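@here heads up, posting the sequence + SMILES for the thymidine-5'-triphosphate run so it's all in one place. Ping me if the SMILES looks off, I pulled it from an old spreadsheet.
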Amino acid sequence: MKIILASGSPRRRQLLEQVGLRGFVVRASDVDESARPGLTPAEMVEELSARKAAAVVREAPKDGLVLAADTVVALEGAVLGKPASPEEAARMLAALSGRTHQVYTGLTLAGPGAVRTEHEVTAVTFRALSGAEIAAYVATGEPMDKAGAYGIQGLGALLVQRLEGDYFNVMGLPLCRLGRMLRAFGVELLSPDGH
Ligand SMILES: Cc1cn([C@H]2C[C@H](O)[C@@H](COP(=O)(O)OP(=O)(O)OP(=O)(O)O)O2)c(=O)[nH]c1=O
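bot reply: prediction finished. Complex structure tokens:
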């Protein structure tokens, strides 16, 4: 089955390769990422991942399997997406400092005749950060294209004291859940013949 990754995120591409998927194609969608007001973070990431998948499905081959995801950070009811400026990144990091937040990723698989959307949550606790540390981290540029203004896979690892759940969900793709969802579409990542 031809797998189409509907994502411009280099992390998601890397993570698919990590679990042995080869030969997939990348078709970044250009959908409106603004969410309807009043949705919970879980509803929001599910809806956005479904929207990203739907935008690519139209041009996909009939036997293709489209995979799309969306990640946000939730802090006590507030949803943090990607920061629009270094100042906003610094504000997000100050809000996350010394507290626990949730990272939500919605995942949609759209195959021949079936579409499935699920989400995964990971709880992440930051240590207390000084203003100087926040400024230094923002100056690296790493926060700018990432939900919640940090990347756990980079220097952001220095901020994370504790994590509960799927680490890869924080990077933007919950691999354990993905494996289970792919199996439902007939794609087995752990097969005896090494596929
Ligand atoms: C919290 C966190 C987020 N992120 C990233 C994952 C996502 O790429 C990004 C959230 O933005 P998304 O809108 O989920 O994804 P994207 O715009 O990068 O790619 P596309 O819409 O084409 O699929 O934040 C990290 O890489 N590390 C982290 O620790």
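MO: Strands lie at 3-5, 25-26, 65-75, 78-80, 100-111, 114-126, 160-164.
MO: One more: The mean pLDDT is 95.
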